[in-house]
Design brief:
With about 70 residues, this protein is mainly alpha-helical. The chain is about 50% helix and about 10% strand.
């Protein structure tokens, strides 16, 4: 476990620490993975679009078949 210097107070701390125990300087920024949420949104959006396209296709097919057989 290597030690690093805190950028703020220069105290030696673990490189695995999230914040400096001396001055509470944040060492690791918490980055949230928005790509996962975006992917879920896009998957839902794609499913919704696919559902709408299939529904309209079935409706159009229904009216075409009615017009052919009547």
């Amino acid at each position: 476990m290597p030690l690093i210097n805190c950028p703020d107070c220069k105290t030696k701390i673990s490189d695995k620490a999230d914040t400096c125990p001396q001055c509470a300087y944040p060492l690791k920024s918490k980055q949230y993975n928005n790509k996962t949420n975006e992917g879920c949104f896009l998957q839902t959006l794609n499913f919704g679009c696919m559902f709408i396209v299939i529904t309209f296709g079935v409706i159009i097919l229904f009216f075409v078949l009615i017009s052919i057989f009547s």
